[in-house]
Specification:
30% of the residues lie in helices and 26% in strands. The mean pLDDT is 91. With 254 residues, the protein is of the alpha+beta class. It has helices at 39-42, 87-90, 134-162, 191-195, 199-207, 211-220, 224-234, 250-253, and strands spanning 4-6, 16-17, 31-33, 48-52, 59-64, 75-76, 79-80, 94-98, 106-111, 117-118, 123-124, 166-175, 180-189, 240-247. It contains eight helices and 14 strands.
Length: 254
């Protein structure tokens, strides 16, 4: 469990962060958060999809890292097998959290139990006068941009919902022994509804740049083949012979 606490100059004046940090904290994650500004880059390596929060029914945009819970096919032996790393997981050991001293205010937090944190590391958070170092300022700037991107992503997803552009998908996997497996609870872009948008709406989406993440999502679906390839390379179990996203039709939902 992470021990995330708000960064305070008086409490953490001697705290430092390692220059070299790996992504072991997501070694067992099969999905990772992604924001809409990242879709185009992420689509070159991962399937970009939506999932629903079971408690709030709120959609979240994620990249698929594996084909089952606890499986990350991109991480092995401290190496990440993709050029692009989602921003949300690359900020380790930092994150945003509520400031206990200021109501409804977010602040920079750090995981004190992270192996990348300690007084013997390379990058100090504060200088001798207790002021933020350039390293820490850059961290705060990055977290601020990430938060703004997440707000923008929420608005983007709301646009998709309001225009009925999301559709439920299932991922059908066929193994070399003809056994099959189905992953559900996934959502992607409904191409038919996309083509039915009015000319006025198309122009509006184009001017606001909404088609960039939409087309990135559509194109990223093909990256599921890479997941199958990575699984076949890393596993001695039954090989995947076929893999495909298909829409969940109304009858199946019932």
């Amino acid at each position: 469990m992470a021990n995330n606490v708000p960064v305070r100059s008086d409490q953490h004046k001697n705290l430092k962060v390692a220059s070299q940090r790996n992504l072991a904290h997501v070694a067992d994650q099969h999905i990772a958060p992604i924001n809409a500004l990242e879709f185009a880059q992420a689509a070159t390596s991962y399937p970009v999809i939506m999932v629903k929060d079971p408690e709030s029914s709120r959609y979240r945009s994620v990249v698929m890292l594996g084909l089952e819970a606890g499986e990350n096919l991109y991480y092995s032996e401290d190496k990440w097998d993709a050029i692009y790393v989602p921003q949300g997981i690359s900020m380790v050991p930092f994150g945003l959290g509520l400031d206990p001293e200021k109501e409804k205010t977010l602040t920079t937090c750090i995981d004190l139990d992270s192996p990348f944190v300690g007084e013997d590391k390379e990058n100090a958070l504060f200088d001798a006068d207790g002021k933020d170092t350039e390293f820490y300022k850059n961290v705060q700037d990055s977290l601020g941009r990430l938060y703004e991107s997440e707000i923008m992503t929420d608005k983007f997803i709301k646009e998709l919902e309001e225009n009925n552009l999301l559709m439920e998908l299932e991922l059908n996997i066929t193994f070399s022994n003809n056994q099959t497996k189905k992953l559900v609870g996934l959502f992607g872009i409904n191409e038919e509804k996309l083509l039915e948008l009015s000319d006025e709406k198309v122009v509006d989406f184009h001017k606001r740049g909404l088609f960039i993440p939409i087309h990135a999502m559509l194109g990223s679906i093909a990256q599921v083949n890479r997941l199958a390839q990575l699984r076949n390379l890393s596993s001695s179990e039954q090989k995947i012979a076929g893999i495909k996203f298909t829409p969940v039709v109304a009858e199946e939902k019932k």
